[in-house]
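[agent] plan:
  1. take the single chain provided in the ticket
  2. run structure prediction with default settings
  3. attach structure tokens to the ticket
  4. add a short note for the reviewer (M.T.)
[agent] executing step 1
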Amino acid sequence: MNEEIRNKFGIEENKPNDWFETLYSGVTESGDGIPWANMAPHPVFKHWIDQNPIFENEKTALVIGCGLGDDAIELESKGLKVTAFDVSHSAIELCKKRFPNSEVEFIQADLIKGHNDWYKTFDFVLEIFTIQALPPKYEKTLIKNISDFVSDNGKLVVITEIQKEKRTYENGPPWLLNTDYIKSFENCGLKQIFHSSKGETELGDEIHLTIFQR
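[agent] step 2 finished; step 3 output follows
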């Protein structure tokens, strides 16, 4: 996206969350107008979870930036007790409307502010494209807050697109990550236990799936 798109949605570096509500407020259950809405689990996540269907030690899960809720529903189908949050009130209301019979706890929350009540709470945490949807100046805060959700011995799955260019506000959104995100999560007390990448990506040089464990 470029400056024209930032102006269209009213994206401001110092008000990084406002544009999500602008985007979701006029959306119906079809998801039209949401550029990242698959109306199904993210394909990279779906492929991985289909290959790793058994959760032996993970009972609770958290989905970060849940959007329209499909990834959360997929985790619920695997038998986990799922909490999913998004900063947009409209997105959360759409999740509840789309999945009225689900027991997923859909909550409005702000990743930049964090959530102290969830400190080391979840056995499994899923992050797909949320960090890259917010300006680069918040990267350290976002990674720290995501890491804090992971319980002792818990796992974090991160799916993100990677670029070689330096992250700057002028280049987004999305503000694709650089490979140093792995070290940043490790600096927050997590250990990388799995990593895969492929070059089939819409915007970046690679798309990564990385698993960390506390």
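[agent] step 4 note for reviewer: Strands lie at 60-64, 81-86, 105-108, 122-128, 150-162, 191-198, 206-213.
[agent] ticket updated
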